[in-house]
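FYI - complex with fructose -6-phosphate, inputs then prediction.
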Amino acid sequence: MCGIIGAIRSDGGVLNALIEGLRVVEYRGYDSAGVAVIDGGQILVRKKQGRLENLEKVLEDGALEQAPVGIGHTRWATHGEPSDRNSHPHQGAAGRVAIVHNGIFENYLELREQLTAQGITFVSETDSEVMAQLIDLELQEGISLENAVRRSLRRVEGYYALGAIAEGPDGAELVCARKGPPLLVASTPDAAYLASDVLGVIPHTDRVVYLEDGDVAILKPGSIQVTDFEGHPVQREVAKVDWTPGDTGLGGWPHYMLKEIHEQPDVLARTALDRIDLERGDVNIEGGQFSDEFLQGVSRVQVLACGTALHAGMIAKYLIEGLAKVPVDVDYASEFRYRGPILVPGTMALAISQSGETADTLGAARLAKELGASVAAICNVTGSTQMREADQVLLTHAGPEIGVASTKAFTAQVAAAVLLAVRMGRANGNLSVQEAKELLAGLRDLRTKMEHLLSEPVREHIRALAKVHARAKGFFFLGRGVNFPVALEGALKLKEISYMHAEGYAAGEMKHGPIALIDPGMTIVSINAPGHVADKVRSNIEQVKSRGGVALSVGSHEGSHKIAGQCIEVPETIEWLSPILNTIPLQLFSYYIADLRGCDIDKPRNLAKSVTVE
Ligand code: F6R
């Protein structure tokens, strides 16, 4: 989704920092890019539809290179088609200001009408341009940019991360403001930066300030002043960023997705190992969070998440109900918000989000809080809104996930769900020390099993199968029990990056309708692990095979492999832990199919990495 970057430097030359910053946030998905700088008192804007390379071409004349202040933006169209005209930055009619904006100004049509009646001509179809026009008019009064921004923001309804530049009496000014979408600021001795994503500033510093809703920040080289909406200074904590610029490189891999799939054994180790206490058969979570006292008061869990994170949440339901015997409801965050949910006392809402910035998940968690729930989060980004708003957080340590299709964040979320389920079961006494020890030892041992799945012979086998199935008419992914959400995830991964039609189904549900679609053009991928539903999955495979479907069995259940004929063998583990292993071949299968079909794997069409609008 849209990315914002801004910089001011005492020695000039911010253009490189802007382009570098935009390149780093490219992964979020966008359809146009632009920059605006002030040089010699003049605002200069360049913007282009399409990839960053298009923008870089128009910058080749070097006209913007020496500028000491500027803002940049990657746009993911919401209001108005992707085009040069609708790209950010936007300027006011008198050219006094340039702005970049993420979010939505909900009353923009009304404001647009008012401004048009005042004789302002709009050049774009965006909601964002109204803000440029409003600030431009305020600046006519000779007030500072920060005050012009504050006054203009009073007139809008909606959500924003906003960056603005204008020439003031003492030179170029850079101001930003936040309500809703993420925004952070950072300074070095001779510069200051703003960005919508921490990756945008880590090439310059590892100390950042995450702005809160209602903050307006004034950036100068070497200093940042954060104020509230009325202009009173406010103190915000400086946070240290654990990620380094090296974490964001391809490191020789052809795609981020493949790199991130291969990082999973390390991610599992970082997320789980230090928290496992095998001696006590329990889990240690930092800062005394998820304490016995708290968890003993939890009578119900409400999972809130979207997409891949929702699939991790569905697995969490099986785990928490199975191990801790606490009932769990799972909702799409986008549905929860508008269905008038009823939460019982003692509900712990569990928001699961890689980015911690997904608008639907944040909105659902806020509603759960209003309804009296405590909010816990499984989240991957330190300092993200979700993390800061939750009462308790279980951080996954997946590192930056750049590939749009989520891989390592998913298995880290499932590992975190195992830890949470064990902690809950130990806290409420429903899980014995012995059972907990077995599970935690099993979790610890997954690392080497994951490494095996990523070894060359296994990868080559999966690649060969991908070749066989790359032209299938469609796919069903089938699973039951704790591997049912794995089937959903396998189908989601395939459709996202290869654009092939794939559906995930509870294997037992096929006979109630979808089986009508089975014919020799369809590939049926079944996911199975030895356990109480394994034989049932096997007979579901028989049902589809006998109707002509081509079956591919993934997992560690011999019987299923035999019936299917084609298989990907996964090392055996405890059934509860099998989703972590079973997911990996499905990720590779999707990756190789997408690669064979020549798809843009890391930036699939129409998708954004972090969906910060509803
Ligand atoms: C799929 C994918 C999305 C995200 C979803 C939630 O590969 O990445 O479905 O899982 O948009 O994002 P987060 O986890 O950031 O809340």
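The domain at 249-444 is CATH 3.40.50.10490 (Rossmann fold). The first strand starts at residue 3 and ends at 9.
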